Amino acid sequence: MKIFKEVEMLKRMFELINKRQTGNSESFHKKLGISRSKLYNLIDELKQKGIDVEYDKRIKSFYLKEDVCVVVDEPLRIIDKDKLRSVSGGFLCYSIFLDKPMAIFDTAKTLNLNL
């Protein structure tokens, strides 16, 4: 599913940014498996969300200008009934596709990139 690939790409993006191992835009977009234009569109979207990503020529890496923590989480998680009882929040529904109960949580509160 496309959304899971996007989440994995975003996790990788912030992992490289936090480690300051992105390289220039040419190597960064290749490491992420996306086009260079998509990389710059993501950076622009992050800036619109208040997450300032900059490039440092000296260290040859993109970095977060402000000291912020960005958490990219899975868009949904499947939790069985027993585990669900110990979780506070979310709601229970029953998946006709998976034939088992699921808990669905809004984990996109930290960063919503309209994937």
- Cross-sheet strand order for the largest sheet: 1-2
**Overall morphology:** elongated
Strand content: 15-25%
Give the SSE order as H and E letters. HHHEEHEE
Structural class: alpha+beta
Distance between the termini: 12 Å
- Largest sheet features: 2 strands, antiparallel
List segments where confidence is low: pLDDT < 50 over at least 5 consecutive residues. Answer: 94-115
Q: Considering DSSP H and I runs of 4 or more, what fraction of the residues is helical?
A: 25-40%
Number of strands: 4
Number of alpha- plus pi-helical segments? 4
Radius of gyration: 17 Å
User: Averaged pLDDT, please?
Assistant: 77
What does this structure look like?
By secondary structure, this protein is of the alpha+beta class. The protein is 38% helix and 16% strand. It contains four helices and four strands; from the N terminus they run αααββαββ. The strands form two sheets. The protein has a two-stranded antiparallel ribbon with strand order 1-2. The chain has a two-stranded antiparallel sheet with strand order 3-4. Strand 1 and strand 2 form a beta hairpin. It is elongated. The C terminus is likely disordered.
Question: Topology of this structure?
Answer:
Layout (H helix, E strand, L loop, with lengths): L1 H18 L5 H8 L3 H13 L4 E4 L4 E4 L16 H5 L5 E5 L4 E5 L11
Antiparallel strand pairs: 1-2, 3-4
Task: For this entry, give a set of tags.
two-stranded antiparallel sheet; single chain; 115 residues; alpha+beta
Summarize the structure.
This protein has 115 residues and is an alpha+beta fold. The protein has helices at 2-19, 25-32, 36-48, 81-85; strands at 53-56, 61-64, 91-95, 100-104.
